[in-house]
Amino acid sequence: MSTGQPIAVIGGGSLGLYLAGRLSLAGWAVTVAQRSGARAQEAGVAAEGDEAWQAPAVRYVPLDELRGPFAQVIVAVKSHDLGELLPRLAALGDGATEYLFLQNGIPWWWSHRDGEIAGAPPLARSVAVVVQHAVERTAPGRIRVRRTGSDRYICARVNGAPDAPLEALVAAWQAAGIPAESSAQIRREVWTKLMNNATLNPLSAITGATVGELASTPRTREVLLAGMAEIVRLAERDGHPLSMTPEARVRRAELVGGTRTSMLQDRLAGRRLETEALLAAPIAIAERYGEPVPVLRTLLGCLSIPQA
């Protein structure tokens, strides 16, 4: 895998823009595709905060005008937007294309098999990316980056162990300044991130508080710890015991400080909230195992009320 090849990033949110900018600066030809009706951006990505850089060569096109093939197709959209997108992805690549999925919560491939979705990329070429990185989109083409010392882009085959093409992709991302790594335990990584996704995200959308405020305020901290404990029990029932404790997770959240979660950003912008993958799907798994999850159910119930 060499620089200069074309890369498509589908989704102009915070993480999509971060990857687009970093890969462009490393010499890749990056195109960001956004849905019709998104606010137009002519070119470029600019970062501020703990990273300050300009990537003027990034170009933007409407999603309907995106044409492959691409060496990498990076899908950085909300889980509820994937249904109409998945059948279109295989047409954007060829036999060597890597399809990377950055989704929160229980992902689309969790219980799918090849061929179940016509036009979807083969699982053997699909890469799950679990992200631990505080990046906020402040305007079209602009992001604010915060470093915490635990920033990670964990990449794994959705149906197996790392292979040579995956390791080459991870090396290319690392060369671009992205803190990428490979893993053979992607389901465990998904459950680990769900400790945050299923608690901090919904609680921030309900209260309007930042990550640091939720983690440092005693009563909301109690809610976080109880909800994270439910995720830990679910992961163990699912065969993926976690090494991270709720207490350690909340302490790490305190380091993020004034960052707003993606769900809070969505609520403030009037966008649809990602409750299905972050809460409804784990609750469905809990029902299958007969595991009580009262905190997760309460958070989902609170978010079911339409925003005024």
Written account of the structure:
An eleven-stranded mixed β-sheet has the order 8-9-3-4-2-1-5-6-7-10-11. Helices cover 39% and strands 20% of the residues. It folds into two domains: 6-184, NAD(P)-binding Rossmann-like Domain (Rossmann fold, 3-Layer(aba) Sandwich); 190-303, N-(1-d-carboxylethyl)-l-norvaline Dehydrogenase, domain 2 (Orthogonal Bundle), CATH 1.10.1040. It has 308 residues and is of the alpha/beta class. The longest helix has 20 residues, at 218-237. It has helices at 14-25, 82-89, 164-175, 186-197, 200-207, 211-216, 218-237, 246-256, 262-268, 275-289, 294-303, and strands at 6-10, 29-34, 43-49, 53-62, 72-75, 98-101, 126-132, 134-139, 142-146, 152-157, 180-182. Helix 4 packs antiparallel against helix 7 and helix 5 runs parallel beside helix 9 (262-268). It starts with 5 loop residues before the first strand and ends in a 5-residue tail after the last helix.
